[in-house]
């Protein structure tokens, strides 16, 4: 039988940009030009510069950055806030910065006009440091002095051919055109890879998105992907890359509340599972989440707490009132809060930010409190889609997740919680039990996959000593007795109970 040769694999150069290598299948095409285009302020120059700097630092590939708008000093200053020390890399002869000033008034256009001088200058820069990567930023400035379309197109083709002949992995940035991806409408055709960046504002919330328009010779992601620019550079979230191939652990981890562990039947939650705590305001949802975080940190394991309603200091202060010390775990580095108002980002940008924080901190437990606040910036359908991606990501990483949700209507179950219930492994319900002029709390396990959980309602007591769950009493008519009514019944006195937990 004849041997079938393996399929051709296009050589690729890793960008080092978080998430971008995932959706490009390994990076930009090696030895070929990549076009990054988009409108002003969408991040073209930054993405090109990060590709160059990470190539030097992480992959030992020297690079040349040729700018036609910003000077070398301006470039170094602009990216210093991201931790990129361009001057140091230049001194080490691993990076070469060049600024080419193009003035239309100084160009005398003739039929013989070409870019031969630029090629000589660029070729010298490449050869002087043995560059493997090149960035040209931006191509519109280079051709701003040309009106003759025939000459312009000829020179663009010559430029791209020159870069290919030099064997460098090149990135060219371009401004968005009208009816085309670039001003000239030709660069996207002669580039082997084209990436479109977009910065849009919807309902006063801005979101940056990225899309691979084309990538010759390889399979790549085709959707729009949100990306974040912060002090660490660019982070891209490949939102559709997760598959349902995560492992299911049999290891049990405690909830931090012994009586709740007993109710769950197996002594706690499955490691890597998802837990939802639902209830009305003031029923103790954050307290349950905090006790879970505490017992995990005491085992010297990391917990990442995403707070969308209270600041770190406020959560720590409030938990101190029930004898729960979270500050010591923050100080020793096992507990980390990331507190943001929901309106600071769009929904997908929150997902990118959370994805990045999880990858950086590497927690074993993640708490999101509350998911309800995300509904202030998006529809229930959009929040469910976001939480679906987050839950699948956490499961694929083997991270145990606890979500807090506030019920805002008078129904027993919030329809919006029911919308994500199929993704949740354990669902706890806490609610008010009112009787005899008192407001008490009750807790029960709505479901817990893979466990023989209790079907009983237990009274949920929060006081200066912490949390505890106790069995409720019933009177002769079968009514539930809680609080003072329970104590009276235990003392042999007449008490009035609650008929059901739904009242």
UniProtKB/TrEMBL annotation:
Keywords, alphabetical: Hydrolase, Kinase, Phosphoprotein, Repeat, Transferase
Annotated SUPFAM superfamilies: P-loop containing nucleoside triphosphate hydrolases
Limits of the KaiC domain: 11-250, 251-484
Residues forming coiled coils: none
PROSITE patterns: KAIC
Highest taxon of the lineage: Bacteria
Keyword Repeat (UniProt): yes
Keyword Repeat included in the entry's annotation: yes
GO molecular function: protein serine/threonine kinase activity
Classification via InterPro entries: AAA+_ATPase, Circadian_clock_KaiC-rel, KaiC, KaiC-like_dom, KaiC_dom, KaiC_N, P-loop_NTPase
EC nos: 2.7.11.1
Gene3D superfamilies hit by this protein: P-loop containing nucleotide triphosphate hydrolases (3.40.50.300)
CDD domains attached to this UniProt entry: KaiC-N
Pfam families for the chain: ATPase
Protein name, entry field: non-specific serine/threonine protein kinase
Taxonomic source organism: Pontibacter toksunensis
Gene: kaiC
């Amino acid at each position: 039988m004849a041997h079938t040769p393996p399929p051709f694999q296009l050589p690729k150069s890793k960008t080092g940009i978080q998430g971008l290598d995932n959706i490009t299948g390994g990076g930009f095409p090696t030895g070929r030009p990549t076009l990054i285009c988009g409108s002003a302020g969408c991040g073209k120059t930054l993405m090109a510069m990060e590709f160059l700097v990470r190539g030097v630092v992480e992959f030992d590939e020297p690079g040349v950055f040729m700018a036609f708008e910003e000077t070398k000093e301006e470039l170094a200053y602009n990216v210093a806030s991201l931790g990129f020390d361009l001057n140091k890399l230049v001194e080490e002869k691993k990076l070469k910065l060049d600024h080419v000033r193009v003035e239309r008034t100084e160009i005398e256009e003739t039929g013989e006009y070409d870019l031969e001088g630029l090629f000589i200058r660029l070729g010298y820069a490449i050869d002087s440091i043995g560059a493997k990567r090149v960035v040209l930023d931006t191509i519109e400035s280079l051709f701003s002095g040309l009106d003759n379309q025939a000459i312009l197109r000829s020179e663009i083709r010559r430029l791209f051919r020159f870069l290919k002949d030099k064997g460098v992995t090149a990135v060219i940035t371009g401004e968005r055109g009208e009816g085309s991806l670039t001003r000239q409408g030709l660069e996207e055709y002669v580039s082997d890879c084209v990436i479109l960046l977009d910065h849009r504002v919807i309902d006063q919330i801005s979101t940056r998105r990225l899309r691979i328009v084309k990538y010759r010779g390889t399979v790549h992601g085709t959707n729009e992907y949100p990306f974040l620019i912060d002090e660490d550079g660019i982070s891209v979230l490949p939102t559709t890359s997760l598959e349902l191939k995560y492992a299911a652990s049999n290891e049990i981890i405690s909830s931090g509340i012994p009586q709740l562990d007993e109710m769950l039947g197996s002594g706690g939650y499955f490691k890597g599972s998802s837990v939802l705590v639902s209830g009305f305001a003031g029923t103790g949802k954050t307290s349950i989440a905090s006790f879970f975080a505490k017992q995990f940190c005491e085992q010297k394991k990391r917990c990442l707490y995403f707070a969308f309603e209270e600041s770190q200091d406020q959560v720590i202060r409030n938990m101190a009132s029930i004898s729960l010390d979270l500050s010591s775990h923050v100080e020793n580095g096992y507990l980390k809060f990331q507190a943001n108002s929901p309106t600071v980002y769009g929904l997908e940008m929150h997902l990118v930010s959370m994805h990045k924080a999880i990858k950086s901190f590497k927690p074993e437990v993640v708490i999101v409190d509350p998911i309800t606040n995300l509904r202030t910036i998006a529809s229930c359908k959009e929040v469910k889609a976001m939480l679906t991606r987050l839950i699948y990501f956490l499961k694929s990483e083997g991270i145990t997740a606890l979500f807090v949700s506030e019920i805002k209507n008078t129904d027993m179950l919030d329809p919006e919680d029911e919308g994500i219930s199929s993704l949740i492994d354990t669902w706890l319900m806490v609610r008010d039990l009112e009787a005899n002029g008192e407001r008490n709390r009750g807790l029960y396990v709505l479901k817990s996959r893979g466990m023989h959980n209790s079907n009983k309602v237990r009274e949920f007591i929060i006081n200066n000593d912490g949390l505890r769950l106790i069995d409720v009493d019933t009177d002769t008519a079968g009514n539930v007795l809680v609080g003072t009514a329970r104590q009276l019944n235990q003392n042999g006195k007449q008490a009035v109970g609650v008929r059901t937990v739904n009242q």
